[in-house]
Amino acid sequence: MPKNTLKICIGTPCHLMGASELLESIAELDQSLRDKIDLKTSHCIDDCCEQAPVVEFNGKIYQDLNPEKLYKIIRNNIR
Amino acid sequence: MSRNTISEVIKLKRRLYIELLRLVKTGKLVEEISNLSQKMITKESPRYRCCEFKERAIFDQRIKAVMGFNIASNKDKSLEELAESLPRQEKKRNIVEVIDTACDSCPIDKYIVTDACRNCVAHKCVNACPVNAIVIIQNKAYIDQDKCVECGKCAGACSYNAILENQRPCSRACELDAISSDSNRQAKIDREKCVSCGSCITACPFGAITETGDLIQVALELFSEKNSLAAMLAPSFVGQFGYQQSPAKIKYALKKLGFEEVREVAAGAEITAAAESKELKEKIMEEKTLLSSCCPAFKRMVLNEFESLSCLISNTDSPMAVTAKKIKNENNKLKTIFIGPCTAKKEEALQNENVDYVITFEELLALFTAHNINLAAIEKGEKLEDAGVLGRQFAYAGGLQKSLQELVTDNYNSKQIDGLGRLKKELYLIKAKKNNYNFLEGMACVGGCIGGPSAMISEKAAKKLVQNFADSN
Ligand code: FES
């Protein structure tokens, strides 16, 4: 069972600022890492739309992301 | 053209769209527009130039372009003044434009001396330089970049090939050599060569090349002028508005935004394909070659550079033109807005009386965002079924060719090429009569329209989604 939950916001503001890139980057993640993550999508995360794109990783919200930043967050916080 | 990662420059441009649209929505565009750069560019924002003041000056130029004004010819006009004159449907303008102040001495040096410099006695480089920009320090040549005018004479003169030309991203991206630099080292667009494909806009890391757009005017038409508008969705629209957003939902959302009609341009594409198939049959009989005409950038390149081949271009109207004409025939009060991934369509629309405005997928997404319409949260939908597979597959490279193969069963050969550079080579072959086919499908963007400069998702993902949608009807 994956121990980590990644929620990527696919709301319109987040899509405009690159949510699809984040989704694609998850598909390219190392399989060993990918297996530990349960991937979900969300319509909007806590109304953070001004700082899009937004994800939630293991309960914590991260804003204004790009694939690089997201990789870092995953690597540093994975359980 | 492959999609670049969304850089800070792109994000800033998209935020600007949203802010401007919010001003339109609250009716404060004219009142607030001159404060926008101060509000959006602060000391903390990422910076590429010396100070936030210069950054703001550049931003103001960008605002003019977003409102649809050419920057150079409106240098002395204030933002308020320009905003006040909207909407005005200007058909005479350049689509792709350099923001002088942003490009002003591009930090990427064009000529550099490498370690291969032998400090020869002849110093041919020093002698070749017309502006004395080359100095010899410690046995090696150096280029004083403040003086250099990028003429390239030194590189040609050096016997050891020690001076390299470092192509700027914009001119490297332009497959038609339409970008050169002037004596101030600013990028200059050769209008005789430019086909408005948008490659340079995507390539410039500083956002110094931009397109003039219709977005703000469309918003004004929708919300202050209260005109009736028809949205025409390019065949490549499927999947561009977010993960798992169905065409039905997009139609519903567009209506919610205020569009009276929502149409698939793919329906026009079916008519285009049928007309083109007739032309093709004639060409097969005459043993000639037909060139496709639906990609305006490809068509423009043929007209610009291969005059003798212009008679081979199909006379059929493009899917956008057909769709707009049909809408106007049904109700000429409707204003038509093409929504696509393409900058060249903006150019095409300038010459077409039936197309009132063109906006891109990213511009429409900004419009949704500014109006708090979150497609992901919408549960409803409205069926979109104007077209079948023959029109819908125009969205990707090879689609038009496939449709014609269905429609024309005669024995003939055809070829499909995407990318302006490769197309140009092929046109030389046709000119020399060295081709053995009757039909050439030419798409300026690699991958076809789904690879366009304003595409929001990867080409691969888009192709799958378009195919699924095409097969569903
Ligand atoms: S839409 Fe992504 S945070 Fe609101």
Automatic annotation (TrEMBL), chain A:
It holds the Pfam family 2Fe-2S_thioredx. InterPro entries: NuoE_dom, Thioredoxin-like_sf. CDD domains: TRX_Fd_NuoE (cd03064). This is Thioredoxin-like protein.
TrEMBL record, chain B:
SUPFAM superfamilies: 4Fe-4S ferredoxins, Fe-only hydrogenase. InterPro entries: 4Fe4S_Fe-S-bd (IPR017896), 4Fe4S_Fe_S_CS (IPR017900), Fe_hydrogenase (IPR009016), Fe_hydrogenase_lsu_C (IPR004108), Mono_FeFe_hydrog (IPR027631), RnfB_subfamily (IPR050294). Residues 108-136, 139-168, 185-214 form the 4Fe-4S ferredoxin-type domain. The keyword Transcription regulation does not apply. PROSITE patterns: 4FE4S_FER_1, 4FE4S_FER_2. Keywords: 4Fe-4S, Electron transport, Iron, Iron-sulfur, Metal-binding, Transport. It holds the Pfam family Fer4. GO terms for molecular function: 4 iron, 4 sulfur cluster binding; metal ion binding. This is Ferredoxin hydrogenase large subunit. It comes from Halanaerobium saccharolyticum.
